[in-house]
Amino acid sequence: MRQSQLFTKTRKEAPSDEVAKNAELLIRAGYIHKEMAGVYSYLPLGLRVLSNIENIIREEMNALGGQEIKMATLHPSEKWKQTGGWETVDVLFKLQSRTEKEYALGQSEEEIVTPIAQEYVASYKDLPVAVYQIGQKYRDELRAKSGILRGREFGMKDMYSFHESQQDFDRFYAIAKEAYLKVFTRAGLDAKVTEATGGSFSEKLSYEFMVLTDAGEDDIVYCPSCTHCANAEVTKVKEGGTCPKCGKGVLAKARAAEVGNVFDLGQKYPKAFGFTYKDKEGREQTPVVGCYGIGTTRLMGTIVEVFSDEKGIVWPKSVAPFGVHLISISGASGEDVKKEADALYTSLRQKGIEVLYDDRDLRPGEKFADSDLLGIPTRVVVSEKTLKENKFEVKDRKTGSISMLSLPDFLLRLPLIS
Ligand code: ATP
Ligand code: MG
User: Fold this and answer.
1) How many other C-beta atoms can be found within 10 angstroms of the C-beta atom of residue 402?
2) What is the pLDDT of residues 363-415, one digit of tens each?
3) Which GO terms label this protein's molecular function in UniProt (predicted)?
């Protein structure tokens, strides 16, 4: 993509009411646009990042056997009344049509997915089954103060699994937990897993996936020596105490953002809808259900919180909007530089590399500042100086290290750097 054609431009300041670092950087760099508190639009660069995140999740959910669907987000109130959620879910947005019919906006989709599954699951032979979707959710959050970490409209991947027995659910739950850890690792993050009771859903076991960042809203107590981790609100053990799991580590306390969680929903939703299946003996049984959420937009914001410096964003390669930021700096020999940069742009694209090519007629300082703000992992500069040496200047956004490389050397190293 030629930067001269890009729909967005960078800006010096974020909106004055925007205090969260993630939103401030993403807005200044042109990834997102703020509509109002807690509601953002995703622009070309932002959509590229979000799609990369979604594709990582999609691959891991497909590997688990999840089948992708897209459910309605405008819900009939009747289904929410049937489960009691109409009265009890405080964040539910309720709408009334001009004919006074009532609707809810999807804040989670148990009310929709359960009756769908009920249509297709008749016998034990149809189980287990898992479906998921990636899309918008709406919640009437009291405070939307952490940029895209807590929105009133936001992106979520939600999966629902249906099982014959608690035992089969437990089996799937364990592999889903591992798949979640893979997702976060692939997105460049180190997620810790807390065990907690399920809050409003049920008192059953749930896992929360937490990433350490001061921008988060949770406090966790964790062991630096093993995987022990708990939400500070629920846990009996305290900071400074000895780890109850390994008996060695000294527990530490830290702020964290919940990027995902998984719940054992038990039989609550099938019971609400009278959903049963026939077991091997032909008896009616109620399935056991699990739900598995990842906040896709919160994940994107968390990545920015964790990977940024005073100059801007530093995207992990796996989610970056482009692999290479190519910058031409034309001085007196402008035409030669342009020719060389154009040729490199073409040959990188032919090799399947995603390139943002800054072909704009701007001062070098402005181009470099924009490049640091955008945070593409590898920057390649073509200038009079590099032309003279018959090399390119290659800079790593993360480490800041610069090397002068010939075209063959650069191409050789590309699989490692982008
Ligand atoms: P939280 O405790 O942060 O409100 P939750 O327990 O309500 O989260 P779920 O309903 O299970 O979360 O949603 C699944 C995931 O969706 C969460 O783990 C989080 O990553 C994300 N999420 C939840 N609420 C929001 C929101 N308002 N804005 C952005 N992401 C959210
Ligand atoms: Mg919530």
Assistant:
1) 11
2) 999 999 999 999 999 999 999 999 999 999 999 999 999 999 998 999 888 87
3) ATP binding; proline-tRNA ligase activity
d(Cα 61, Cα 180) in Å, to the nearest integer? 9
Domains assigned to the chain? 11-309 (3.30.930.10), 324-417 (3.40.50.800)
Residues in the chain: 418
From residue 389, give the alpha-carbon distance in Å to each of 200, 262, 277, 331, 339.
65, 55, 73, 16, 16
Asked if residue 157 has its Cβ within 6 Å of ligand 1, the reply is no
Pairing between strand 312-313 and 324-329? unpaired
Q: What is the predicted pLDDT for the residue at 237?
A: 82
| Residue whose CA lies nearest to ligand 1 atom number 2 | 258
Residues 200 and 212: beta-carbon distance below 8 Å: no
Reference 232, options 209, 213, 214, 256; nearest CA is 256
- Nearest Cα residue to atom 9 of ligand 1: 293
- Tokens 């997702």: give the residue: 183
Asked if omega into 128 is within 30° of 0 (cis), the reply is: yes
293 lines ligand 1 (CB under 6 A): yes
